[in-house]
Design goal:
Strand content of chain B: under 5%
Number of domains of chain B: 1
Radius of gyration of chain B: 19 Å
Number of strands of chain B: 2
Radius of gyration of chain A: 22 Å
Largest interface: A-B, 54 and 42 residues
Structural class of chain A: mainly alpha
Order of helices and strands of chain B: HHHHEEHHHHHHHH
Strand order of the largest sheet of chain A: 1-2
Number of domains of chain A: 1
Largest sheet of chain B: 2 strands, antiparallel
Distance between the termini of chain A: 42 Å
Oligomer: heterodimer
Helix content of chain A: 55-70%
Shape of chain A: globular
CATH architecture of chain B: Orthogonal Bundle
Strand order of the largest sheet of chain B: 1-2
Number of helices of chain A: 15
Order of helices and strands of chain A: HHHHHEEHHHHHHHHHH
Distance between the termini of chain B: 36 Å
Helix content of chain B: over 70%
């Protein structure tokens, strides 16, 4: 049973992804398709943070920097090249390179936890401020005006490789975005199953111990950070193709949104953040339309998002996926017929005794849900001191 | 000469504004190791409290110096009891929860006051130095920043309250063993930090006006200043503000305000690379 579940999960994800990939363009209107493209590109962005925060324990408060950089690189290069294929490749390569530089700076400086968050946040703010003021002639890169606050509304749409001028239709862009989402999802899974992935997860669990075993943890962290940057760049590329690029891509609310998706979906899972992202986007869109409805004019999207975030941090800190997993486990444990195979009975007791040895703050304030989950991996719960 | 005087005043003003906007955050972070991402919204709330009181006929100075800190201080204590208390020792979780709080506060204030700029004109008129004129209120703010720093130092250094605060800061378990209730100390600290934020929010309202989203303009700078400053609350904040404020003003004068901001942020990044524990993590370790 416990072996079978992950396989079943993978198959379910694949089926759902493929259904969306082939089903949606056939039935939905263009408006829905464009919206779905935005969701898919955001979901890729969610995966990028899910990977580096959930599995490598690197809390990047400025993932939007790579997102925006990917979008802008694509737009500028596409305007200059004419053909978009090379531009698309650059849109992934440049954020990856930037992540490599930033990562080298941070990991070789042995900067950790909050300080890392502050630096990434600051870098994305620098980019935001900078791009915001690039209005005017002197900020043209080749033929592409950066456009300051307005961004580049004339961001070119991808064309078929090698055939400049033949743009992809919105349905094709959606198929590409959804296809890339599926590819990135399983790519991340595969990456985490390799030796490299296991070392990265081990670093999240206990960096000092991994270092003492002879691994150069800085290199592993840098590598996973670069992968995260590249994936975020890719999502910026797809976003540029469904909307257009503007300085908001670098802004604090975007960085924050990604963190909310990951927290709500479940830190330390890949599918959770994707689901969290889509749920939150649907919710935000719906809240935006809600104030047209009489009697609900007072509802403010920020208010609702803020309350949801607080509730999740306080009551469901492991996210929706863990909640669902707990529910499934509870049902399995309480099934009336006798079970075959081993149900991890010991786990509950183990965790409890482990938490009893922890600090009293931890154990007193643990939420009821956490007890059933495996011991916390936590990029989350280290204190900085 | 006049130009030099104005430049010096501008630098003082930039430094003072950094000190003011980071002080509340520094008290909470230094004492409790809690990063309050709703700090910007505490400032915003202070501004609204002052303006609302003023519009209802309260004297402007009373509104800024008494009403704003009291309102936000009480609000802070409520927040501490309801949310923060459950998250001690979990730095990242407190950041996320307070960030949720900040979003909720922005939403709530938008609902109540609307998404428009409200403002009051700055009191005290203007000050003439040679051929230049500047607001006397800005000079007043520099003085307030200095007074707050000195008062904070005096309280921490000379009073019983300060002794308890420092003891809890150094070793909460030992302080508890000696009969101090850390829970009470934390609640009071959070209230004091919030009250400071409210005071500053009220004082800054005449300069910047208030909108529900104004917190975002402050939070990044405050956050960076406090982290660059390091463990010592007062001296760390003062030194970091001095350094970053000077760089900001110099670059603003030499180039543009935007480059000034960018230089401030870049300087902070480099500073943290060299001194990962902040300035007072390496220098002035025994200071407050």
């Amino acid at each position: 049973m416990s072996r079978l579940l992950p396989v079943l999960g993978n198959i379910a994800v694949l089926v759902a992804g493929l259904a969306a990939l082939f089903g949606l363009p056939a039935f939905a209107e263009t408006y829905v398709i464009i919206n779905a493209t935005i969701f898919a590109s955001f979901a890729i962005l969610a995966l990028s943070l899910a990977l580096i925060w959930g599995y490598a324990g690197i809390l990047c408060f400025g993932q939007a920097a790579f997102f925006g950089l990917g979008g802008y690189t694509y737009a500028v290069a596409a305007i200059n090249f004419g053909d978009t294929t090379g531009a698309a490749a650059l849109a992934v390569a440049l954020p990856a390179l930037f992540a490599a530089l930033l990562g080298y700076f941070m990991f070789w400086g042995r900067i950790s936890d909050v300080y890392l968050g502050v630096i990434t946040l600051t870098v994305s703010l620098i980019l935001y401020r900078f791009v915001n003021q690039t209005a005017g002639e002197q900020w043209n890169i080749g033929e592409a005006p950066l456009g300051g606050f307005n961004g580049i509304p004339s961001t070119p749409i991808l064309n078929w490789p090698g055939r400049p001028g033949e743009q992809l239709a919105p349905e094709n862009i959606f198929s590409l975005a959804a296809g890339l989402l599926i590819l990135v999802y399983f790519g991340c899974k595969a990456l985490l199953a390799t030796r490299f992935g296991r070392v990265v997860v081990a670093i999240r669990e206990n960096e000092a111990r991994v270092a003492l075993l002879g691994y150069d943890t800085r290199r592993y962290k840098l590598a996973i950070f670069v992968v995260g940057g590249a994936v975020a760049g890719l999502s910026g590329l797809m976003f540029a193709n469904s909307v257009f690029v503007s300085p908001t891509m670098f802004s604090l609310p975007v960085s924050g949104q990604i963190i909310i998706w990951v927290i709500i979906g479940g830190l330390g899972t890949l599918i959770g953040p994707v689901i969290g992202c889509i749920l939150m986007q649907v919710l935000t869109n719906w809240l935006g339309t809600l104030n047209q409805v009489p009697g609900f004019g007072w509802v403010d999207p920020n208010l609702v998002l803020g309350v949801i975030l607080m509730v999740f941090v306080l009551l469901v800190p492991k996210g929706l996926m863990a909640l669902a997993a707990d529910a499934v486990r509870w049902v399995v444990r309480n099934l009336p017929f006798p079970r075959r195979g081993k149900v991890p009975e010991g786990r509950k007791g183990d965790v409890r005794s482990a938490s009893a040895t922890g600090s009293h703050l931890e154990s007193v304030h643990t939420s009821p849900f956490r007890r059933f989950a495996p011991p916390s991996p936590s990029g989350g719960r280290k204190s900085s001191a | 000469m006049d130009y030099a005087a104005i430049l010096a005043l501008q630098i003082c003003s930039a430094v003072a504004s950094l000190v003011l906007i980071s002080l509340g955050l520094a008290v909470i972070f230094g004492m409790m190791r809690v990063i309050n991402l709703a700090h910007g919204e505490f400032l915003m709330l202070g501004g609204y409290a002052a303006i609302t009181a003023y519009n209802n006929g309260v004297n402007l100075w009373l509104a800024m110096l008494i009403v704003a800190p009291l309102t936000v201080g009480l609000f802070g204590i409520v927040v501490e009891r309801l949310i923060i208390r459950h998250l001690y020792g979990r730095l990242i979780d407190t950041m996320l929860a307070t960030w949720g709080l900040s979003l909720a506060m922005i939403g709530f204030v938008t609902v109540v006051f609307g998404n428009t700029v409200s403002g009051i004109s700055a009191p005290l008129g203007s000050l003439t130095i040679g051929a230049y004129r500047t607001g006397a209120y800005e000079v007043f703010l520099v003085l307030v920043a200095a007074v707050l720093l000195v008062a904070g130092w005096a309280v921490l250094r000379f009073t019983r309250l300060g002794l308890i605060a420092r003891g809890t800061m150094q070793n909460a378990a030992m302080a508890a063993a000696l009969g101090v209730s850390p829970s009470l100390v934390y609640a009071v600290t959070f209230g004091v930090g919030a009250a400071l934020s409210g005071l500053v929010g009220g004082l800054l309202a005449p300069l910047s006006g208030v909108v529900p989203t104004i917190g975002a303009a402050y939070i990044a700078k405050a956050f960076i200043t406090v982290i660059s400053g390091g463990a010592a609350i007062l001296s760390g904040t003062a030194i970091a503000s001095g350094l970053l404020g000077t760089i900001n003003t110099a670059m603003t004068f030499a180039f543009t305000p935007v480059l000034g901001e960018v230089a401030l942020l870049a300087a902070a990044v480099i500073l943290l690379r060299i001194l990962p524990q902040g300035i007072t993590g390496r220098f002035f370790q025994r200071s407050l």
